[in-house]
Amino acid sequence: MVFDEAFDVIVIGGGHAGCEAASAASRLGAQTALITLNLDLIGQMSCNPAIGGIAKGHLVREIDALGGIMGRVADRTGIQFRLLNRSRGPAVQSPRAQTDRALYRVEMRKMLEHTPNLHLRQGMVSDLLVKNAKILGVEMQDGRRIASRAVVIAAGTFLNGLIHTGQRTYTAGRAGEPASIELAETLKRLGFPVGRLKTGTPPRLDGRTIDWSAFHAQEADERPVPFSFSTDRIEQPQVKCYVGYTNPSLHETIRENLNQSPLYSGRIKGVGPRYCPSIEDKVVKFSDKERHQLFLEPEGHDTNEVYLNGFSTSLPAGIQQDLVRMIPGLEAVRIIRPGYAIEYDYVDPRELGPDLQCQRISGLFHAGQVNGTTGYEEAACQGLVAGINAAALVIKGLKPFRLRRDESYIGVLIDDLIKQGVDEPYRIFTSRAEYRLALRYDNADQRLRRYGRELGLVGEGDWERFNQRQNGIAVARGLLKEVRLRRADSGYSAAVDITGSDLGDSISLRDLAMRPGITSETVERLLPFSARDQVTTGELEAAMADNLYAGYIKAQEVVISRLKHHDSTPIPEGLDFRTLNGLSHEMVERLERTRPQTFGEARVIPGLTAAALSTLYVAASLQT
Amino acid sequence: MDTIVAIATTPGRSAIGVIRLSGPESLKILRGLIGDDLFAPEPNHVYLKQVVRESGEPLDSALVTYFEKPRSFTGEEMIELSCHGSPVILRRVLDLTQNFGARLAEPGEFTLRACKNGKMNLSQAEAIRDLINAQTDAAAAQAARQLKGELAVALQPAKEILIKIIVRLESALEFVEDDLPRIQSEQIEKDLAQVVVIVEGLARTYATGRTLREGLKVAIVGRPNVGKSSLFNRLVRMNRAIVTEIAGTTRDSISESISIGGIPISITDTAGIRVANDSIEEIGIERTHQVIADADLLVVVIDGSTSLSDEDLAIIAQTIRSRHVVAINKCDLVRNSEFENRLKLSSQVVHLSALTGEGLDGLIAAILAPFGEVDSEAVGLLITDCRHYDLLRRTQATLEKSVDLLSRSASEEIVLVGLHNALQFLGEITGETTTDYILGEIFSTFCIGK
C-alpha cells in the first residue's frame, strides 16, 4: 500500500479527547498526527462553556496529576471559578469554572502547536486501513493515505451525526459542521456493535437583549480554586452568572407544542442522558414542578452570546424564540443560535480493554463519545489514557497504562465502560466510586502524580512542586498530631462555640479538626506562630481531609473485602449460560454480552436479577 | 449432567422410604428398575409398580411418580419412588439404580441443582437445608416460610426506605447546582429509625428462631434421690432411666430428645450431686457438672417432702447464674411453703409430682418461658440462620452509627458510608442494589440537569 505520510500515532478528532490523546502521545515521543475537520475549531466546547463540577472536577484534577493539559487550559481561560459543595466534606467538593469559549480554543491550539512531535492535519478520515486485525493507518476523504501503528478515534458526535430541530433533520457533526458518515460506516463494516445516542443543546442568547436585573446574580469565588496543580493563580477577570426560572404558562406552551418535538413524535431513536434532560422532558416528566431553574452563562469576555443552561431543546427554532420570551427578563430576547438535538453513533465500549484498545483490531483505540460517554472531562481522561497506550505500542520501554477503581475516578469510568457498557450517555458521578472518600480532588496529585512522572508526562518543575507539597502535608500531619488546644489557650472558647460541645481539658488539633464545623481557617489560627509559615492552607487541608476520612475508609474496606470474597469466584471459561435453565433469555443475553470471568464481574452487570445471580453463583461454584 | 440418586427420607426403619432420582436418565433408570422398557408414565401421576431384582424376581412394590422437566423440584427429569421403609430394601433399590447408571448424590446436590436451574435462590436454598434438618413441626413450618422468600419480603420495606434516604442524600451531593428540595435531617433521622426498628425486630426473633432450629438443652439436676429420674421419665414418657430407692442410682447422664410445643428439646438426666461414695459416682458427678455448663436451662429438683438441705442450697447456689427452674417434687405427699418463701426471690419455682404427673404442665411452661413466644404460627417470621442474624445485626449497628452522625451534622458523604454498607448487608439477604439502580431512582425522583 502506498502512503502519503507516515506517523507513529494518528488521532482522529480535535475535541477534548483528541487533544489529550495527541498531546500525551507526542510528548511521550511518538510522532503523532492530529487529524481534524477544521483546525480552527480545535478544543471546541460543543455544549456549555464550562469545565468541572462534582466528580467532573475530580477528573480534571486527575488528568492534570497525570500530566494532561485540560486543567492548564481551563485555568488560563476560566472566567468564573467556583468550588462546589463547599459546605460538605472535602471528598465531594469539586472545582468548576465557566470558560471563555473562544479563548479556550485559542489556548488549546497554542498548547498543541507548541508540542514537539505533534503534527496537525486538516481533513476527514473516511476509512481505517486494517490488515490481519491490525491497524495500518487511515484513508482520507480526499484520497490521502496516512500510515500509523496506532489510531485513536475521538470523533465525538460526528459519527453519523444527525441534527433535529422540530421536524427537520439534517446530517451534521455539530451545527454548521459536516457529519462523519463514511467513518461510521467503516466501523460497522469492521463488525463493531454500534448503537445510537442522543444529546442536546440549548439556545444561545444575545446578551444585549437581556434584562439582567430580573435575574439573581451568582458570583465567582473570592479565592478561585484552580484545576491544575501547576497553576499559581487565576489571571482572567471573573464574571457573574445569573439564575432564573421557567414558569407554568411557559410549561403549558411547551405541552401544546409537543407534537412538533422530535423527541415526542418518535423521530429521535437514540437514548438521551437522564441527568441532562431537555426542557420538554422536564416539563413532561415532572409535570408537578411549577418552575425549573435556568442559568444564564456568558460565553466569554468578547462576545454577547449567552448560554441558556437548563433549556436544552429540539423544538422548532421559531417556537424556541417564543418560549424564551416567556421568561421574566427575556421578554425582548433574541436567539443567536437555536438549540438542537443531535443523534450519533457510538461503539459498545465492551469491545475495549482497560487500555482503551479494541480487542477486535490491535492498534485501534476509542476515546470519548464514541464510547458512549458524555462530557468534556469524561472525554479528556479517556483521550489521555488512549494516547498514552497508543504511544506505548510504539515507544520502547513504555508499558501499557491502566488505572484502578480504588485509585482514581478515571479507573472507575473506564472500568464501568468496558465491563458494563452503556445504555445511555455515561456521565461520571461520585456515587459511581465505591472508594469515594479516598478519591478527593485535592489529593489527585498524591494518588497519581507519581504515574505521570514515571510515564514522562510530568516535567521537572511540576515534580519538584509535588514533592514540596508532599513535604508540606507531612509537616501539617505532624502539627495536627502534636499541637494541643488547652482550656487555658486563647482560642479554646471560640472552638467550643463552633463545635457546640465541651472539648475537655486538652484536645489535639487532629481530633478537633474531626468535629463538624471546624475549618482549615480555624485550625490555622490555632497553630503556633512559628508553625504557620511551615505549611500552606492547601497542605493543611489535605492533611485534615486524610484524618477526617481515615476511619470511614477503613470501614468501607471491610465491606468491600467481604464482597470480594464472593467476587473472586471464577466463572468457567466455556460455561454456556444457555444451559442454565433458570435464566431468562434476557439474563442469558446480558451475560453473553459481558462474558464475566468472575462472579464479581457478573454482579455488576446492569439488569441482572438476584435470582439470576444466585443461579450463576451456584453454577460457578458447582463447576469449579 | 449425570443422573443422581439418594434416599430422601431419614435413615432407619419407617413405614415408607422415598428414593429420588434427578437427571436426564431418570426415566430410563426407572424402566430398568421395574423391568418395563415401554413404561411411559404421565407426569405427576402416581403408579403402583413392582421393583424387580436382577434375577427378575420382585423386590418391593413401590409408588412411582414421574416429574417432567422443568416442572420438578430440581428443574430436571425426576422420579420419586415410595418403597417400604426397610433400610435393607432401600439399600437394594439404591444399588439397582446405580447398576442402571445413576450416581449417589452428594449432600445437598438436589438443592444445588434446583438453584442452578433457577428453581430457587440462595436464601431459599438455605431454607431447604433447614427444612431437611428441621427436627420438629414448628421448625419445619419456619423453614417452609423462608422457602417462600418471606425473609426477603419482610426486609423489603426496610430496604425501600433506606434506598429512598440514600437517594435523597446522594442527589444533594451530586446535584448541588440543581434546584432540589432541602434535606430535612429530622425526617431522615426518623425514617432511619424506622428502618432500625424493622431490622432489629427481625434480628430479635433469632433467639426464638435458633431455639426452634437447634432446640433446647435441658438438664435435670439435684441432690441424689429427689426424683430426677422419675421426672425425666415423665417428661420423655417412657421408663428410660432406672428408678430405685437407692440414692445415687443414676451414675451416668442419660439424654433423650422430645418435642414440646414444637420445640426440639434434648433432656438430660444427671447423677445426683453429693460427695461421691465411689469413683464411678465421682465420674458421674463430674459429668453432671459438664452437662450443667452445657445446658440452656436447668431443672433443679428438690424433694418437697423433706426440708431444704444444705446440699439443696449448695446446688441452687451453683446453678443460680444459669437459666433455671426449681421443681419441688413430691407435691402429692406434702406441700411445704417454707421452700417457696426461701426460694422465690431468685428463682422460678414450680410444684409437681413426678409420680402422678401433677404440675408437669407448669414445669413445661416454665421451661419454655425464657425462650419467648415460640408458637411459630402466631409470631410470624423468625430468623433461624446465624448468617442472616449476623447480617441484620451488622445492618442495625451501622445504621445506628449513621443516625448518630446525622444528628451531629456530619457531612452527607460520611453518613452515606454507613447507609451504603447497611444496604450492602441487606442485599446479601435480599439481592443486591446497584449504583445504577440508585442513580435511576434519583433521576426519576428529582428533575436533575442544568
Kindly describe this structure.
The complex is a heterodimer of chains A (about 625) and B (about 450). Helix content of chain A is about 35%, strand content about 20%. Chain A contains 20 helices and 24 strands. In chain A, strands 16-17-18-19-15-20 form a 6-stranded antiparallel β-sheet, with no helix packed on it. Chain A has a 5-stranded parallel β-sheet with strand order 7-3-2-11-22, with helices on one face. A 4-stranded mixed β-sheet of chain A has the order 1-10-9-8. In chain A, helix 1 (about 15-25) packs parallel to helix 9 (about 375-395) and helix 2 runs parallel beside helix 11 (about 445-455). Chain B is of the alpha/beta class. Chain B has a 6-stranded mixed β-sheet with strand order 3-4-5-2-1-6, covered by helices on one side. The two termini of chain B are about 55 Å apart. The model of chain B has no long low-confidence stretch (mean pLDDT about 80). The interface between A and B is large, with 61 and 48 residues.
SSE blueprint and pairings:
The complex is a heterodimer of chains A (624) and B (450).
Chain A: E1 5-6, E2 9-12, H1 16-27, E3 32-36, E4 50-52, H2 56-66, H3 70-77, E5 78-84, E6 94-99, H4 101-113, E7 118-122, E8 125-131, E9 134-140, E10 145-147, E11 150-153, E12 162-165, E13 168-171, H5 181-189, E14 194-201, E15 204-206, E16 216-218, E17 241-245, H6 248-256, H7 279-285, E18 293-298, E19 305-309, H8 317-324, E20 335-337, E21 340-347, E22 364-366, H9 376-394, H10 409-420, H11 444-455, H12 460-482, E23 484-486, H13 492-499, E24 506-508, H14 509-513, H15 520-526, H16 529-532, H17 537-567, H18 585-594, H19 599-603, H20 610-623
Parallel strand pairs in A: 1-10, 2-3, 2-11, 3-7, 11-22
Antiparallel strand pairs in A: 4-6, 5-6, 8-9, 9-10, 12-13, 12-21, 14-21, 15-19, 15-20, 16-17, 17-18, 18-19, 23-24
Helix pairs in contact in A: 1-9, 2-9, 2-11, 3-4, 12-17
Chain B: E1 4-7, E2 16-22, H1 26-34, E3 46-52, E4 58-67, E5 78-84, H2 87-99, E6 103-104, H3 109-116, H4 122-133, H5 137-147, H6 150-174, H7 185-204, H8 206-214, E7 216-221, H9 228-236, E8 254-260, E9 263-269, H10 279-294, E10 297-303, H11 310-319, E11 324-329, H12 337-343, E12 348-351, H13 360-368, H14 376-379, H15 386-407, H16 412-430, H17 435-445
Parallel strand pairs in B: 1-6, 7-9, 7-10, 10-11, 11-12
Antiparallel strand pairs in B: 1-2, 2-5, 3-4, 4-5, 8-9
